[in-house]
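Researcher: We plan to redesign the surface later, but first we want a full-length starting point. Tokens attached.
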């Protein structure tokens, strides 16, 4: 039987730079998550908090906006499920929060939909899309890219 050694192919300086970027991004970043399934929402909140981010977790755009207005902060990134209650979509939730704060806050759509029409609708938004079940590594990479990109005017 052979042993397999897992090696990080990045150089020490690349690993250090990544660790600093993760730490710097998480120190001040506010992630707003909109998901209408309570158990999934709690899971996202726990995950992002474990990564060191401040989190606003809400079941709808209206709920998120209430909390954000009270906090006096705009989100640094928005993550929204594509299909929400009452016929709402993650795209409309994201757009309403962006409108409230007057700029294009980086955002990610998450979907479990597999229907071609729904996927076309989501893709037409121009937002990055992650498919359920969400891979934590992919989510973190995309989140860091969104945070690095920052707000767009």
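Model: Full-length starting sequence:
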């Amino acid at each position: 039987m052979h042993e397999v050694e897992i090696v990080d192919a990045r150089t020490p300086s690349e690993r250090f730079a990544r660790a600093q970027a993760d730490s710097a991004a998480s120190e001040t970043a506010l992630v707003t998550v909109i998901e209408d399934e309570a158990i999934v929402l709690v899971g996202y909140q726990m995950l992002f908090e474990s990564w060191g981010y401040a989190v606003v977790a809400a079941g709808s755009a209206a709920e998120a906006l209430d909390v954000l207005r009270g906090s006096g902060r705009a989100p640094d990134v928005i993550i929204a499920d594509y299909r929400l209650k009452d016929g709402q979509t993650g795209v409309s939730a994201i757009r309403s929060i962006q409108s409230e704060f007057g700029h294009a806050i980086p955002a990610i759509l998450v979907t479990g939909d597999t229907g071609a029409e729904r996927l076309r609708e989501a893709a037409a938004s121009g937002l990055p899309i992650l498919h359920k079940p969400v891979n934590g590594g992919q989510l973190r990479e995309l989140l860091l890219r969104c945070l690095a990109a920052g707000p767009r005017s």
